[in-house]
Amino acid sequence: MPSHEAGWAHADGALKGPAWLREPVDTNPLVPALWSQTAHKRDGDLVVGGVALADLAAEHLTPAYVLDEADFRSRARAFRDSFAAYDVFYAGKAFLCTTVARWIAEEGLHLDVCSSGELTVALAAGFDPERIGYHGNNKTHPELRRAVVAGVGRIIVDSFVEIERLAQITDELGETARVLVRVTAGVEAHTHEYIATAHEDQKFGFSITSGDALEAVRRVLAPPGLELLGLHSHIGSQIFDSSGFEVAARRVLALHARISDELGVTLPELDLGGGFGIAYTTQDDPADPAQLATEMSKIVEHECRSLGIEEPRLSIEPGRAIVGPSMCTLYTVGTVKEVALDGGARRTYVSVDGGMSDNIRTALYDADYSCTLASRHSDAQPVLARVVGKHCEAGDIVVKDEFVPGDLRPGDLIAVPGTGAYCRSMASNYNHALRPPVIAVRDGGTEVLLRRETEDDLLATDVGIR
């Protein structure tokens, strides 16, 4: 999209929509690749998990996150089975609640957390701490102590200070902490700048190039309370191919071999990260788990053979690829406004009852989303529209560009697919909005996993209440 000092929405050509967006003949059908596996239209009504979302909205109101349990479990199993020789870590930061933690355990996956709060949820769900990996670039002394006491299976260290803290804690407690050293491989992943995490100039990990990574390994090996399991690399998020992993694996495995040669230590594990992409719109073409597993296994096998070393036990972190496509967000249309612009152009704004408080990704990452009319069939001609929220913010955009029926009106339901990852987990109370519920659907039934916030919740932390 061309640039403009007032933002991309004002640039020349913005009213035409992106080049990849094609005007449909009919706005009613779903694009299957964007939706969970059970989603379909029935007489115009969107049905997910056997539940008509119009009925769900009548009972639970909107906005609401709708999680397709069967789809979620199917994607979890697909990664588990495709990467059978790996440990597969579900990304708690993408979306986590106690029920989802139990689903993950039941499907045989591990779990990564990156805060004390996420660890709290996992432990409250009864998740085996041995199967938890603890991430984060600024883990405090109390957080590390809690992880050691809880018996967390892997702590991914990210700084020299953290290594010192962990050594002190294990010495005080007489415990052993199993550790991975996070390294940066200097790979420029083809993704948004804010979610590319293996290039040199960013906050995560120890640089291989500068020698910090090898020094971090030396420091972990010194204290008796730290057990070094291996190295951890993560090139970013919303990654669609294995080319970046090939470069990263080559550099990380070279360090792995150097540690064996120079320090006499054979590391049993290697975590290659993941951050696999999903289809938010028709421009996205993610690889399936089996293809990714085949390609990544070949990469590791080839590099280990070239280096003359044994293959370590591998781990991956699929990131959003499990929960992302399994959830959609349901909104009610409040207003439809056609705005006259310079040169006779017009833009249609569809305002819904949510916005950046329940999905910040469009404003934060310039992310693209799709949507569909969810509550009826329409024979109207398509119009290019922008779906916006109700917040006091010009950047409060949910869907930048999408073709919707020309007769869209207040009271209609709109559903946005692909909102399982980083939407509820990054949701806020901006403008004192109430965060929506998360409702699981399966076989025609519903289960509230997280209830809708209430005004009592808003006031609960306000100590000025008399």
Task: Identify the notable features of this structure and list them briefly.
single chain, 466 residues, alpha/beta, TIM Barrel, 2 domains, nine-stranded mixed beta sheet, 21 strands, globular
Tell me what you see in this structure:
With 466 residues, this protein is an alpha/beta fold. It has two domains: 8-68 and 325-459, Lyase, Ornithine Decarboxylase, Chain A, domain 1, CATH 2.40.37; 135-322, Alpha-Beta Barrel (TIM Barrel), CATH 3.20.20.10. The protein has eleven helices and 21 strands. Strands 4, 14, 15, 16, 17, 18, 19, 20 and 21 form a nine-stranded mixed β-sheet that branches. It has an eight-stranded parallel beta barrel with strand order 5-6-7-8-9-11-12-13, surrounded by seven helices. A three-stranded antiparallel β-sheet has the order 1-2-3. Strand 1 and strand 2 (45-48) form a beta hairpin. Helix 5 crosses helix 6 (160-173). The N and C termini lie far apart (52 Å). The model is unreliable at 1-9 and 190-199 (pLDDT under 50).
Spans with pLDDT under 50 lasting ≥5 residues?
1-9, 190-199
The strand count comes to: 21
Binned strand content: 25-35%
- Determine the N-to-C terminus distance: 52 Å
Determine the mean pLDDT: 92
Shape: globular
Structural class: alpha/beta
Shape-level CATH architecture of the largest domain = Beta Barrel
What's the helical proportion of residues? 25-40%
CATH top level class name of the largest domain: Mainly Beta
Oligomer, anyone? single chain
CATH topology description of the largest domain: Lyase, Ornithine Decarboxylase, Chain A, domain 1
Q: Helix count?
A: 11
The total number of structural domains is 2
The rounded Rg comes to: 24 Å
